[in-house]
Specification:
about 50% helix, alpha/beta, six-stranded mixed β-sheet, 6 strands
């Protein structure tokens, strides 16, 4: 999913105000509303089946009456999702991904495909954004990680068993459209950025998992700061714009009489214009678990 790459990029800038969060114990935060509580949980969308979630997830889940995720994954039709991705992610029949890349880009694409163990021709009809997302997801799967073991799917299964309602902050079409509507040049830059970063992916993934478990927003903010610095045209719409939209929705939920657990990519929490920053600017006090 933009799922994957976006969450890893998920997916904001280090400021001194976040130093207090650096010693935090977990990626779960609590906000007291007028008559309720809202928990914010930072997600990793793909994990190894052997990974366990921090205990704070269990406590927040047990306390919350409803779940909210980036999209409503409980009602998501896998076939419809695949169809939508193909409609938005395929090039016209007279174009190929290889034609959009220069010689160096094609060499990097071939190298990464060989590492993952696929024929690069499999990606020839993919628009650059979908190729980037696919390569990242396959790389994570080769490392033993799976979307089914990610935070969202684990909580979705529990919610189905418990009969807890799940809602989304945005629709699948809105989420896919963020990438599909990028100009071709920016999509190509995104793919080249993905290919460039793939060599460091194992080290970055391990560091990010460590920061996620600790709820270390200072370390997470550095990841997002790096992305903004190297690809500002992408990070604006994928992080800041969405964070502001989601903040409006979260404020609405803080006026409810039910308790909520909101689960989004952990990089949306950290840094300037992250969810924590935006909510604090609105006067809300945030407690980390």
């Amino acid at each position: 999913m933009l799922f994957t790459r976006l969450r890893r990029l998920g997916l904001c800038v280090l400021l001194p105000i976040y130093a207090a969060f650096a010693q935090a114990a977990s990626p779960v935060w609590e906000i007291q509303g007028q008559r309720n509580k809202v928990y914010l949980a930072g997600s990793i969308h793909m994990l190894a089946p052997s990974d366990t979630l921090p205990p704070s997830f269990d406590r927040a889940y047990a306390d919350a009456e409803r779940l909210v995720m980036e999209i409503d994954m409980d009602d998501l039709d896998p076939l419809a999702a695949q169809t939508a991705m193909m409609e938005l992610g395929l090039l016209p029949e007279n174009q190929s991904l290889q034609q959009l890349l220069n010689a160096e880009g094609n060499a990097q694409l071939n190298e990464q495909a060989a590492i993952i163990g696929i024929d690069p021709i499999m990606l020839s009809r993919f628009r650059p954004w979908l190729a980037a997302v696919t390569l990242t997801q396959l790389q994570l799967m080769k490392k033993g990680m799976s979307p089914q073991a990610g935070v969202e799917m684990r909580l979705v299964e529990r919610a189905r068993q418990d009969g807890k309602d799940i809602a989304g902050l945005e629709t699948l079409d809105e989420q896919l459209g963020l990438m599909a509507n990028l100009p071709d040049q920016q999509q190509t830059q995104f793919l080249l950025y993905t290919l460039k970063e793939s060599a460091q992916a194992d080290r970055e993934i391990d560091s990010m998992l460590k920061a996620w478990r600790a709820g270390d927003t200072a370390a997470l903010a550095k990841v997002v700061e790096k992305g903004f610095r190297e690809f500002p045209e992408l990070y604006g719409p994928l992080t800041v714009d969405r964070n502001r939209k989601w903040t409006t929705r979260i404020v609405e939920l803080l006026r409810s009489d039910q308790d909520y657990l909101i689960v989004v990519g952990v990089l949306h929490m950290a840094g300037k214009d992250g969810l924590l920053d935006l909510l604090e600017r609105k006067g809300y006090k945030i407690k980390q678990h």
